[in-house]
Specification:
39% helix, 3-stranded mixed beta sheet, single chain, alpha/beta
Length: 322
C-alpha cells in the first residue's frame, strides 16, 4: 500500500513524513520513501501465544514524500491514496480551499488522460474498443460536470492501468503550531486532522521508552502514525486477516468484502489457482476458547468455500492443490 504525501511548498510535507516514518532529513530534488509497520495487538497475541519462535510479519504502509503536486508523474498516479498537508503553523490554515484545489487538479489530469485516449479510440470499432469508449465517455461526462471518477463506482480491471487519481481517497493533515491539536472533522468527504508536525518529528527520533512520556507531556492524545493509519484503513475500506504456522505468523490487509479465494491469492497466486477450501476461525473465538484444541472441541472452526466473505479478524488456513 502506497500513500503519497502532497501539499504546497512550505506546508511541512517533509516534517509530516518524518513524524510518521521516523526518517529524519529533508528531500532535495527527488522523492523519499518510508515504510511504517501497522501496530497490531491481535498479531502480537497470536505470535506470543501460539508460535513465539516463528517470524512475525506486520502489515506495512509505504509513504512517499513528494517534491511537488504533479499528477502527470507516475510516482503520484500509482499511489493508493493521498495525504494532503496544509500549513497551519505559519498562517491561518485553509483546508477546505486546498482540498478543493487538489480535487480540481486530480480531475483536470484525469480528464486530459481520458480525452487523449478517446481520441485514439475514435476510429476503433471492435467490441473491446466500443466498450472502453462507452465507459470513458461516461467518466468524461462526470469530470465535465465537476465530479470525480470515484462517483462512477467500480472501475473495470482493464481500465485500472490509467490510475485515475480522482478515483482515490484523500486524507488531509493540518500541520499545526505547538500546543494546538484540533478535533478530527470531515470537509467535502475528506477526513481532516491536525498534528503538531515539528514536535511529533522530534518525538519520533527518541527511543521507544521515551516517546510515551513525551506524548503525555505535550498533550498529544495519539501518535501521528497511529492516527493516520487508522484513518487510512477506514477511508480505504480495509480489514485485516491472519495466517499462522510454525514458520510465520502474519497479518494481511485487504479490502472489505474480499472472498476467500481472492484472499488466498493475496497470500500466494498458487493458493488462489488451486484453492479447495478455507478453514476459518475468528480471532475473538480463538482467544475466548483459550487454545486451538479447545476451539476445535467447541466447533468454532468452520470450513468455507471460495465465495466466503472474509471478515476482519479472521484467521485463515487455506487448503489448495496445484
Amino acid at each position: 500500500m502506497l500513500i503519497a504525501i502532497v501539499g504546497k511548498p512550505g506546508s511541512g510535507k517533509s516534517t509530516v513524513f518524518s513524524a510518521i516514518t521516523g526518517i529524519s532529513g529533508l528531500h532535495r530534488a527527488s522523492e523519499r520513501h518510508g515504510t511504517v509497520l501497522v501496530p497490531d495487538e491481535r498479531l502480537d497475541y497470536l505470535h506470543k501465544t501460539y508460535h513465539p519462535d516463528a517470524k512475525k510479519t506486520y502489515v506495512h504502509i509505504e509513504f512517499l514524500d513528494t517534491v511537488k503536486i504533479d499528477f502527470s508523474r507516475e510516482e503520484l498516479r500509482v499511489a493508493d491514496g493521498y495525504l494532503l498537508v496544509v500549513d497551519g503553523f505559519s498562517r491561518v490554515p485553509d483546508p477546505e480551499g486546498e482540498i478543493r484545489e487538489l480535487k480540481e487538479e486530480m480531475m483536470l489530469k484525469d480528464l486530459e488522460i481520458i480525452e487523449k485516449r478517446l481520441a485514439k479510440l475514435d476510429r476503433a470499432f471492435d467490441q473491446e474498443s466500443v466498450r472502453e469508449k462507452k465507459i470513458l465517455t461516461a467518466l468524461k461526462e462526470l469530470l465535465d460536470n465537476g465530479k470525480p471518477v470515484r462517483e462512477y463506482g467500480e472501475i473495470p480491471d482493464f481500465l485500472r492501468g490509467f490510475n485515475f487519481s480522482s478515483g482515490k481517497p484523500v486524507i488531509c493533515v493540518v500541520n499545526s503550531k505547538e500546543g494546538i491539536e484540533e478535533e478530527e472533522k470531515v470537509i467535502e468527504g475528506v477526513p481532516v486532522l491536525s498534528l503538531q508536525g515539528e514536535i511529533e518529528k522530534e518525538i519520533s527520533e527518541l527511543s521507544l521508552e521515551e516517546r510515551d512520556e513525551f506524548y503525555k507531556s505535550m498533550g498529544i492524545s495519539e501518535p501521528a502514525a497511529k492516527r493516520i493509519i487508522r484513518i487510512i484503513y477506514k477511508k480505504l475500506g480495509l480489514i485485516t486477516f491472519y495466517t499462522m504456522n510454525r514458520k510465520e505468523v502474519r497479518a494481511w490487509s485487504v479490502e472489505d468484502g474480499i472472498n476467500a479465494k481472492t484472499a488466498a491469492g493475496v497470500i500466494h497466486s498458487d493458493m488462489e489457482r488451486g484453492f479447495i477450501r478455507a478453514e476459518v476461525i475468528s480471532f475473538d473465538d480463538l482467544k475466548s476458547a483459550g487454545s486451538e484444541k479447545k476451539a476445535r472441541e467447541l466447533g468454532l472452526y468452520r470450513v468455507e468455500g471460495k465465495d466466503y466473505p472474509v471478515r476482519d479478524g479472521d484467521i485463515l488456513f487455506i487448503r489448495f492443490s496445484v
